[in-house]
Design brief:
The complex is a heterotrimer of chains A (416), B (264) and C (412). Chain B contains 8 helices and 8 strands. Chain B has 264 residues and is an alpha/beta fold. Chain B is globular and about 45 Å long. Chain C is of the alpha/beta class and 412 residues long. An 8-stranded parallel β-barrel of chain C has the order 1-2-3-4-7-8-9-11, surrounded by 8 helices. Chain C has a two-stranded antiparallel sheet with strand order 5-6. In chain C, helix 7 packs across helix 8. The chains are: A alpha/beta (416), B alpha/beta (264), C alpha/beta (412).
């Protein structure tokens, strides 16, 4: 079993009247709420947390891309990956990832991931998310009716740019390039492992991952039941191709907070979970369904839920601590409690990679480190043995080198 | 009453789904539908069929033509679709009425094939953009009632668009029609037609609706100024989808202007 | 005078028969010449050198963007800048720069530079190159006929994205976005200093004069040949009524320093030869796509930026290189003299030194860098001290600078 540490990089200083003055945390939230000097302190605190996670034994550090988002201050996560690549030496750097459909031409994504793979000595996981309508369509103006086709074309172009040693011509709908010839090329050949974050419960993503043998990343933020149905769907597509289900092809993400006792966990961490819920609950619904974002099949699948929601207009409210745990959207408590919860989650879903969200909302630095350390020291050892019988083909394969010799480490550069 | 026909168009064998009604001997009228497509042969078309040979196609991507969207890349493809349709029907030229996105398509046809257009009525036209009058974003709406903003009040969506249809089919159809609209109008409904409007030499009437949340009435003046000799009027008691909200008034407007040159 | 340490990041293993077996170092150079595992070592060596230079007191460390190029292996220099931001403390990060016309939409550049400015505590210089024809037109398929128009639109959009605190819509010829609303925003207000790296283009001069930006002439042909062009820029500023300030100009120059002139020749000739011979071997057909140069620039007889492969440096010898200014070279005394001559001729306040050249090994690059920092810089720093530099970053106060937690190497 492999364990990864995710950072979403939220803004932790939203004012009490935020919801009255802003219809959304995304796209059009008031930019005056962002304070760059505090942002400076915060970026470094967050990067320190990621580096700390490597030090205490996590296998990977996970970053993602959002635009104009109060709860995701990384428009280009590859910049954070670059910072981590030269300050870490062992952990995988999981870009989950760059929104490949938002690069025109997409060869830049191929170049940047190659650069990072070379700098890090082959520690990159290349995540290819479809993205969200908020990021792609509203903030970046990408046409939703074309978006999936563009995503597929860009995927094909990036893979060929990595693999084809010759100069080639690309005459696509999205890109027309007479000379494609990427320098540099990735260390990991033929390419870094590819992970695909789930797009809801979309059978198209299941097929795409199964067909290309990519890892499928299922986000359990909405709870255990939807995560299970997503993962079951994926495994059924793998099986139907006659491929054995290797758990390492499955990734599940989960919010995790650990304390000495269950009570302490609630007392210490509930306010920070509530910070996020309080500001995102009942967010502007107009961003969620850019016309054309879903395929006709996706529209029909989703329509059932939308119509049911309309029939039951209970006003949304912040879930209680116990509801979060019972629904499976949160693993919280003592190391023993969290171990049991996660063992159930990953064995039921057959997931070999766990992406833990340890920092949430306005959680302070020391509380984040404490929870991370407890997990590393008391939970990981209890779960590490899971899936021992399987080979993990979805983690990076770094080059075998001594940790980088850094002749300028670090006083000459003026750090510390 | 009219008939929904499926025709093979020359050239290339593209299929058209088209409502045809009225006396084939009457003057031809090409009806170019709004964002919401053509939910049924409604009162506007029925009234127009008293005076016209009404030809009301689903544009590629809307209604029964939903799977034709990938083949239509831009405005030129839409112009060619409509021109091919008129040719196939043996109609040399027609009066043209376009509502909402259909007004954009009508203006493109008149700019590119002036010989095919006898008169042009553009109702609540999309296709030009003004930062001063952006209107509501038709594509950032509550997914439960995504076209409510297109009506003068939200109940009219239920009453005029969704009524008499299977709720799930109507809802899915609504989203697919929006998808088709977004393909041509995303993210800002500036289609570039503004560069071509000066070429229009057909008699043109611009109409805007009093309660249109999407196209401000001031946009009517901007369109009128861009098309040589165009006239403009304002419609009361209607939102963006005027063919559903005020079918008789709209039909009167078209008949008076197209056949008699009267704009009152 | 300010001194910056710049690394192009060349591939140091081009074979002896490179000119015979490849028509160009750029665009269609054989990708099999690149070895990613060795590339790992090379990248980290180059990044170490940049940090080394920061530690020696250079004012800035610089990176730039090239694509499909064996002498410039940074398709996205912001990646390098990000790693440097977290491993240096007070040095300027000279991002020279991101090719803003190659972004669709360019709000990503606004976002990335904002991220870097925030990460670095306000140490970013934002370079906005038009880019070369090789990079823009041939590698990235950008249309040369509309490139400059698009560059201007993208510039305007980036500036507004940084400066307008409200959500706005952008209905441009090349970008349409309904909601522009950057998170995060740069520390430096209203925006980081903007430098325009260019070859010779009349429009670029006018643009810098109009906007008050720094013009950075990135040439590999040296300060003697650079004089006419740089004077063209200063004259243009004068014509447009802009008061002269040397810090509004920057120049890139190959520099090598050793204990003595002879030793410099001995140590560095082969590496400069590698650079002039192999790295500047650019197929002329890629240098100037139809439409890349404007009519005015063609009429002014100015070459396309980056077309320096058409030069003759590779046919010359050490003494010619020094005489004709392709390189500033020799003992610290000689180099200081040449820098003074350069400053007089070009009247630039910012010197972007290329102290790593071609296939120069790490020890030589460091030796040259160290001598320059310790024995040349102190003697020429005073030049232009009467002028105020408005084109360097304004970082946050040291008490506000975040210190990254120590990395415990090998602790795992």
């Amino acid at each position: 079993m492999k364990f990864h540490w995710f950072h979403g990089m939220p803004w932790p200083h939203l004012p009490a009247d935020f919801r009255e003055r802003n219809r959304s945390v995304w796209v059009d939230a008031d930019s005056r709420l962002y304070e760059p000097v505090e942002g400076h302190r915060l970026y470094h605190e967050y990067l320190d947390q990621l580096e700390f996670a490597e030090r205490v034994g996590f296998d990977g550090l996970v970053l993602n891309e959002h635009h104009q988002h109060v709860f995701g201050l990384m428009p280009s996560p590859q910049l954070m990956a670059a910072a981590l690549a030269r300050r870490t030496s062992r952990a995988a750097i999981v870009l989950l990832g760059m929104s490949i459909a938002l690069y025109r031409p997409a060869t830049r994504a191929a170049e940047e991931i190659a650069m990072l793979d070379v700098i890090s000595g082959g520690r990159i996981v290349a995540g290819f998310p479809l993205g969200t309508p908020m990021d792609a369509n509203y903030a970046y103006g990408a046409n939703p009716a074309e978006f999936r086709r563009v995503y597929r074309e860009h995927h094909d172009l990036i893979l060929r740019a990595w693999k084809d040693p010759d100069v080639f011509t690309w005459n696509g709908e999205s890109a027309k390039l007479r000379y494609v010839n990427v320098w540099p090329r990735p260390v990991q050949q033929p390419h870094p492992p590819v992970w695909i974050p789930a797009d809801g419960v979309s059978s198209e993503t299941w097929d795409f991952c199964a067909e290309h043998r990519y890892a499928y990343v299922c986000l359990a933020s909405r709870g255990f039941a939807p995560a299970q149905s997503a993962m079951d769907g994926f495994w059924s597509r793998v099986e139907s191709r006659g491929i054995p289900c290797n758990p390492y092809q499955g990734v599940v993400s989960q919010t995790i907070v650990v304390a000495e006792s269950d009570e302490e966990a609630q007392e210490r961490y509930q306010p920070h979970l509530d910070y996020t819920s309080r500001h995102t609950l009942g967010d502007f619904p107009g961003w969620t369904e850019a016309p054309g974002w879903r395929t006709e099949r996706g529209i029909r699948e989703r329509a059932v839920r939308t119509m049911a929601d309309l029939g039951n207009p209970t006003p949304p409210r912040i879930p209680t601590w116990q509801e979060r745990i019972d629904s499976g959207s949160l693993a919280a408590g003592s190391p023993v409690t969290v171990t049991e919860h996660l063992e159930h989650l990953v064995t039921t879903l057959r997931a070999g990679h766990l992406v833990g969200v340890f920092h949430v909302g306005d959680m302070p630095h020391d509380a984040t480190l404490r929870s991370t350390r407890l997990f590393a020291e008391q939970v990981i050892p209890r779960l590490r043995h899971l899936w021992d019988d399987y080979d993990d083909h979805w983690s990076p394969t770094p080059i075998a080198t001594e940790p980088l010799k850094r002749t300028t480490e670090p006083e000459l550069a003026g750090v510390n | 009453m009219a008939e929904l026909k499926t025709l093979d168009l020359r050239p290339g064998g593209q299929t058209a789904h088209v409502w045809e009604g009225g006396d084939p001997g009457s003057p031809a009228l090409l009806f170019l539908h709004p964002i919401t497509g053509i939910p049924r042969w409604g009162d506007a078309l029925e009234t127009l069929a008293n005076d016209f040979h009404v030809i009301a196609p689903y544009q590629p991507g809307w209604g029964p033509a939903k799977d034709d969207l990938p083949g239509a890349h831009d405005g030129l493809d839409l112009v060619l679709f409509n021109v091919d349709l008129l040719n196939t029907l043996g109609v040399g030229s027609a009066h043209v009425i376009g509502v909402s996105i259909g007004a954009w398509i009508g203006a493109e046809i008149a700019a590119i094939r002036p010989d095919a257009v006898q008169s042009l009525t553009l109702v609540n036209p999309l296709g030009l953009w003004s930062e001063q009058y952006p209107g509501e974003d038709a594509f950032a709406q509550h997914p439960g009632f995504p076209t409510a903003v297109l009506f003068s009040n939200p109940d009219k969506r239920t009453e005029l668009l969704m009524a008499d249809r299977d709720p799930m089919d109507a809802y899915v159809g609504e989203l697919l029609d929006l998808r088709a609209s977004a393909k041509f109008l995303w993210p800002i409904p500036d289609t570039g037609v503004g560069r071509r409007l000066v070429r229009i030499d057909t008699r043109t009437l611009i109409a805007t609706s009093e309660h249109d949340n999407i196209v401000a009435t001031e946009m009517g003046d901007i369109w009128r100024a861009a098309i040589p000799g165009a006239q403009s009027v304002q419609l009361s008691d209607s939102g963006h989808i005027a063919d559903l909200e005020i079918p008789e008034a709209l039909a009167d407007l078209v008949r008076n202007f197209a056949l008699e040159g009267v704009t009152a | 005078m300010k001194f910056h340490w710049f690394n192009l990041m060349p591939w140091p293993h081009l074979p002896d028969d490179f000119r015979e077996t490849n028509r160009s170092v750029w665009v269609d150079v054989d990708s099999r010449l690149y070895d990613p595992v060795e590339g790992h070592r090379v990248y980290n060596e180059y990044l170490d050198q940049l940090e080394f230079a920061a530690g020696l007191g250079f004012d800035g460390i610089g990176v730039n963007e090239h694509h499909q190029n064996a002498y410039g292996m940074m398709p996205s220099p912001q990646i390098m800048a990000a790693s440097l931001a977290r491993r240096t403390k007070d040095v300027t990060l000279l991002l020279l720069g991101q090719s803003i016309a190659l972004y669709n939409p360019p709000t990503r550049v606004a976002e990335e530079m904002a991220m870097l400015d925030v990460m670095s505590g306000g140490r970013l210089v934002a370079g906005f190159p038009v880019g070369t024809s090789m990079d823009d037109n041939f590698c990235f398929g950008s249309n040369p006929a509309t490139l400059r128009d698009k560059y201007r639109e993208n510039h305007d959009l980036i500036r507004r994205a940084w400066e307008d605190p409200d959500v706005f819509s952008w209905n441009g010829e090349y970008n349409k976005i309904r909601y522009v609303n950057l998170w995060p925003r740069p520390i430096q207000k209203p925006h980081p200093p903007i430098w325009i790296p260019g070859g010779g283009s009349v429009e670029t001069w006018d643009f810098c004069a109009e906007m008050g930006y720094n013009y950075s002439y990135l040439s590999f042909n040296g300060y003697v040949r650079g004089e006419a062009l740089m004077q063209g820029f200063w004259n243009r500023l004068g014509e447009m009524g802009v008061e002269f300030n040397p810090f509004q100009g920057a120049f890139a120059q190959q520099v090598v320093v050793a204990e003595t002139d002879d030793q410099a020749e001995q140590m560095y000739t082969e590496h400069l030869q590698y650079f002039f011979d192999k790295c500047l071997h650019v197929y002329p057909g890629f240098a100037d796509a139809p439409g890349y140069r404007t009519e005015n620039t063609i009429r002014a007889g100015l070459r396309a930026g980056g077309a320096q492969g058409l030069g003759i440096a590779h046919t010359l010898e050490w003494k010619d290189w020094v005489r004709e200014g392709y390189i500033v070279a020799g003992s610290p005394d000689s180099v200081a003299e040449q820098i003074e001559a350069l400053a007089t001729k070009l009247q630039v306040g910012h010197l972007v030194t290329l102290l790593h050249c071609g296939d120069m090994p790490d020890d030589k690059a460091r030796a040259s860098t160290k001598l320059f920092a310790e024995q040349v810089m102190p003697r020429v720093k005073h030049i232009w001290e009467d002028y105020e530099d408005h084109w360097s970053p304004k970082p946050i106060g040291s008490e506000q600078v975040a210190t990254p937690a120590p990395v415990l190497t090998g602790s795992n």
